[in-house]
Amino acid sequence: MKNIFCLAILFTAVLFTGCKKNWDAHYGDEGTVSNLDLLSYLKTQPEYSEFVAKLEEYGLAEELQRDQNLTIWAVSNDKMAALSSLGDDLKFILSYHINSLVYDNTKLKDGLRLMTFNGKYLTVRKEGSVVQVGDASIVKGNQLCKNGVVHEISQLLKPDVSIYDYLKGLDADYSIIRDSVLAMNDTLFDKESSIPIGVDATGNTVYDSVYVISNPIFEKANIRSEFSNVTMFLPSNQVIKGCFDDLAELYSQFGKSFLREDSLIAYKWIKEAIFYNTLIEDYGSTDLTSAFGKLWKTNVQLVNLDYKRMSNGRIYEITKLKIPNNVHISMIKQLFHYWEYIPESERDALFKFTNVTNVQPKDQDKVTFPTIGVELTYRTLLIQGNLADNLPATMECTPIMLERKQDGSTGYKVVEVPPGEYNLYMGFRSTTHPFINVYVDDQVVAKTLNVEPSTPWNYDRSTNTVSGTKYNGWGGLVGPVTITGTSVRPFKIKVEYAGLGKGTVETLELYHWALIPTANNY
């Protein structure tokens, strides 16, 4: 019997030791344990008296005694003076310090989002032993009670706003993106949430009506919902203006005006590229795809990495914005006969002819497009070689465009294009045209290319023409080209005779070239 009693004592001691180790592992060395409910416990702690008084004043204290488990984010009396500076709705602010369920130290994980009593999420960040909630940090945690836990924090919490509410409250410096997003709002009657309160004289139900805001953006990334966890990249008016100034400057370098329709294309891309249905972390580590499927290259689009924390995600301020080339550039196109506008003293620097006996611009076919009121004569650059010498006639040029001089005369300017991948299209007077080789910047694009078929090679009458006409198309596809470098620059095109087709003379008759950005051209 004595041995049994001793064993029982030993078993109890081991069990107590094991329980204590488990308790310590669960709650840590820090913390206290009370069998009181949360409100009763807080009232025993004089350092929280002002916090408790405000909970009682705004009808929140009773929540701490109900049959529910809560987590309380309390502050000491010396921190309560800041309450009035956090906003006018003090009950809303105090409710942000209460959330359902018990989150002791072991459950406070980095990135945890806690729904508080005011309907806003509170975000937890943890780095080493430091636990941060919102803008505060825990200074005395794990005060465990019968129905929850109290964590003392370093300052009162100011409720975060949603991305939508933040956007709506932005000042005039952000009016472009603010107004363009809000203009998409539609106010809808929510019948399910509206309460019938009677019947009118015609027998129709009268409701205490509830209305909801609908916006196409919400369907992709709900920046208004507190249950979302999304990201927005925010451009200021200055950033957007800088982006559009860059576009206008770029367009001038390849002979295009920056028009209203171009700005609308850019605006549409911006609105569809800046919203993400996920929380973006470690910005710059990889390219991103927006909620609308738009590619966002983080090495091109620059942001301030110090993001703004929102109740339903975060906002990064954009510092440099670029519209991708394949979004805003539909075509870069010029004509070969512009050679005639170069002064003779400057021609050799831009156009080089080898094994050529004659060069001349030549008017060819005259056409009319009555549906769009256009009448024109196709003018080509005719280049003749000597078939008997067995040396291929070749033309290599730095493409140019025309520009109006101050005196009203027509001059020229070298075309400069942004780097990236393009498809090169060209057009010729295709009838009996010989085969050709084509090079861009000394790189082969096509060898022994047959450009005699009228479709698609005759002038620019094929491929993506003006709707319902054969006007101003791309022409025939020569092949993909890559303009190397990091900034806009000139480039070279070389066309070389490569043998006869149905024709009998070594004559190149060039009409136009066009560069079309590929999907890879950002």
Could you characterize the architecture of this molecule?
This protein is α+β, with helices and mostly antiparallel strands and 522 residues long. Mean pLDDT is 91; it is low at 1-29. Helix content is 21%, strand content 33%. The chain has 12 helices and 32 strands.
Query: In terms of per-residue confidence, which ranges show pLDDT below 50 for 5 or more consecutive residues?
Result: 1-29
The total count of strands amounts to 32
Tell me the major beta sheet: 8 strands, mixed
Round the Cα radius of gyration to an integer and report it: 36 Å
Q: What's the mean pLDDT score?
A: 91
Q: Note the total helix count.
A: 12
Assign the structural class, choosing from mainly alpha, mainly beta, alpha/beta, alpha+beta, or little secondary structure. alpha+beta
Give the termini distance in whole angstroms.
87 Å
How helix-rich are the residues, as a percent range? Answer: 10-25%
Shape: elongated
Percentage of residues in strands: 25-35%
Note the main attributes of this structure.
12 helices, single chain, alpha+beta, 6-stranded antiparallel beta sheet
Could you write a compact summary of the structure shown?
By secondary structure, the protein is α+β, with helices and mostly antiparallel strands.
